[in-house]
């Protein structure tokens, strides 16, 4: 049965997160970090979310002991999503360092992070459409790619404007 391997893999992921999130665990954040469906309780500290993921692991181990296959599958998927969300959050901690509105330019940093996320999503959408277009010639896909290019140009202009505004503030 693959359940012991799954548990071992999820425990290893969680242990890796402890090392990654350790320095960030007690930092306070004033904006929501995760979807309420993924982490039911709202917290200001990243360490509290890590504790919730550990609770999910405990419930998963209990479900494995009870041989509840449906619950094991659901909890394993949920824990994998939680660990991945925590990993992404830790990876973007440097970008979010100035996100708090009480800092000079905090709102601009927040807006810049949003624009950069929009740009990343638009690039991913464009790449997907280009792959589909390479598989077959569809005029609708060509129009979508053109529209995505226009949206991407507007997004990049917004990023540049925000970066210039931040430079003016930090001088």
UniProtKB/TrEMBL annotation:
- Write down the InterPro entries for this protein, in alphabetical order: PriC, PriC_sf
Classify the source by domain of life: Bacteria
Under the heading Gene3D superfamilies, the entry gives:
1.20.1270.340
Q: Name one Pfam family in it.
A: PriC
The protein's name in its UniProt record: Primosomal protein
């Amino acid at each position: 049965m693959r359940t012991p391997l799954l548990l071992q893999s999820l425990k290893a992921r969680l242990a890796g997160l402890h090392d990654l999130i350790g320095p960030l665990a007690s930092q306070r954040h004033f904006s929501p970090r995760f979807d309420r469906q993924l982490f039911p309780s709202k917290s200001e500290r990243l360490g509290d979310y890590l504790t919730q993921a550990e609770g999910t692991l405990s419930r998963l181990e209990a479900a494995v002991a009870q041989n509840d296959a449906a619950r094991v599958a659901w909890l394993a998927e949920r824990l994998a999503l939680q660990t991945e969300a925590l990993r992404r959050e830790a990876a973007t901690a440097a970008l979010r360092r100035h996100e708090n509105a009480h800092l000079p330019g905090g709102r601009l940093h927040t807006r810049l992070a949003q624009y950069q996320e929009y740009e990343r999503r638009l690039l991913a959408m464009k790449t997907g459409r280009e792959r589909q277009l390479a598989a077959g010639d569809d005029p609708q896909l060509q129009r979508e790619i053109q529209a995505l290019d226009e949206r991407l140009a507007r997004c990049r202009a917004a990023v540049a404007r925000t970066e210039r505004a931040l430079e003016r503030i930090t001088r």
